[in-house]
Amino acid sequence: MAETDRTEGRQADLDGSKIDLQFDRPHPARVYDYLLGGKDNFAADRQAAEAGLRANPNSRTPPRENRAFLRRAVTYLAREAGITQFLDIGTGIPTSPNVHEIAQAISSQARVVYVDNDPIVLTHARALLATGPGGKTAYIDADVRNPDAILRSAELLDTLDLDKPVGLLLIAILHFVGDDDDPAGLVNRLLAALPGGSYLALTHLTGDYDPAAWEGVAAVYRRSGVIMQVRPKASIERYFAGLEMVDPGLVSLPDWRPDPAEVGTRPTDAEVSVYGGVARKP
Predict the structure, then answer these.
(1) What is the mean pLDDT of residues 218-235?
(2) Which CATH architecture has domain 61-207+235-280?
């Protein structure tokens, strides 16, 4: 049984304030944690994850590939693109290496703002705020569907200099945003607040390779009260409109600048079913 079960039925205490853990319904961050083999999840999260696995036995593959892509993308941005500021929206439950660990290993001055709306992630804020000498991290309890709350927050403005380039990370988050909330518009609003030379790194589930299986998973989430909307490549390309794509463009995650050590262990596109890409704002 997951360690978090010990808190089921009550609130968590963080810095003297009570946080509703919302254990009675699944949350994408905790389902993701379960699929990665983590312990910070509740029965509702595990039930949703297991139902998803019955609909599509490959459901554990996308979280692993997303983590690998995140590591490669942040490494590219910090090492090759010279980015020292990151805004990670939909950060999820901490899984090492975190963005600040990757970035600060390359540049000790790197600054990172994490954003999530899961109360369990909030209880891990202290761990996220640990940082190396010279760098800085912050955490915002907010939703990607409210970009103004993110961009105007004191935590962001005290941590990042929005006159200098920022790496905007939207990893495995927009497929939890329905069309009614205009995900492309949300991306545009976030990018509009960032200067030229900033980058967008984004991944998104797709049904292009195995539509029946992923529609089955999406239906499981909907029955649990969670929006999941897998989208075709053409729809995901809209998020990069007006940006300069970094080679190799928008591709299946294992094809985005794979590490030599990963060659030969590549899952199939149908198993992954996630597109990812990185692009620069002119």
Answers:
(1) 87
(2) 3-Layer(aba) Sandwich (3.40)
Which of the 8 DSSP states describes residue 246? P
What angle is formed at CA 120 by the lines to CA 77 and CA 14, rounded to 5 degrees? Answer: 105
H or E element that contains 136: strand 136-141
The sign of the CA dihedral 32, 36, 40, 41 is positive
pTM: 0.84
The label of the residue with tokens 């692993």 reads 64
Instruction: Please name the residue ranges forming H helices in the chain.
Output: 28-35, 43-55, 61-79, 99-106, 119-123, 125-129, 147-151, 154-159, 183-192, 211-223, 233-237, 269-272
User: Which amino acid type is present at position 67?
Assistant: R
**Sequence spans of domains, the chain:** 61-207+235-280
Question: What number of other Cβ atoms are within 10 A of residue 25's Cβ?
Answer: 13
Is residue 124 within 8 A of residue 94, CB to CB? The reply is: yes
DSSP letter string, 66-104: HHHHHHHHHHHHHHTS---EEEEET--S--SSPHHHHHH
- Cβ neighbours of residue 142 closer than 8 Å, sequence gap 6 or more: 115, 116, 117, 149, 150, 153
Q: pLDDT tens digit string along 57-71?
A: 777 788 889 999 999
What's at 101, amino acid-wise?
A: E
**What backbone phi and psi angles, to 5 degrees, belong to 99?**
-60, -45
Token pair listed for 46: 């595990």
